[in-house]
Amino acid sequence: MALVVFLRGVNVGGHRTFRPTVLANELRHLDVVNIGAAGTFVVRQRVTCTQLRAELVRRLPFDTEIMIVAGRDVIRLMSHASLSERPAEADIVRFVSVLSRRSPFQPPIPMRFPAGGKWLLRQDCREEDRFVLGMYRRDMKVIGYFSALDRLLGTSVTTRNWNTITAIAKVLGAGRR
Q1: Contact 75, 166 (CB under 8 A)
Q2: pLDDT on residue 70
Q3: Distance between CA atoms of 124 and 133, rounded to whole angstroms?
Q4: Cβ-based neighbours of 111, under 8 Å, separated by 6 or more
Q5: For the whole prediction, is pTM greater than 0.85?
């Protein structure tokens, strides 16, 4: 079973910087594919989550949260029509946030930030107990609203663009649906 790794808060604003391609090369015995610069990897060789986490911790030059999900969960996520079929607007980005663990809380869906006026971040749905799907507008205030998601869900999240999720699915062999 393939695994997908999401590192939280790496290569952002000059903090926790590293070269994902170098890490992927160091993990070539696990048939690792690097997806972009944000610390996203597909691991195609059979390995347990515990073994993979230990390999990553040993090789990363800093501490960070490591979120590992089954590749099949990402493939199921791709069938979710909510984001994949919506036309993209120039100032709106479709996203998927990956939860570090199942959320102990179930805030109402949809959720908009700010609550009044023009939304900047919109959480549309949750899938597979590990994913939050939505959209955000390109605005500096959005980062603060993503931090609010951590508090509302009671667990850490890391966010990727829908295009990154599509790239992961292609590596997993699912392609676009």
Answers
A1: no
A2: 96
A3: 6
A4: 122, 123, 152
A5: yes
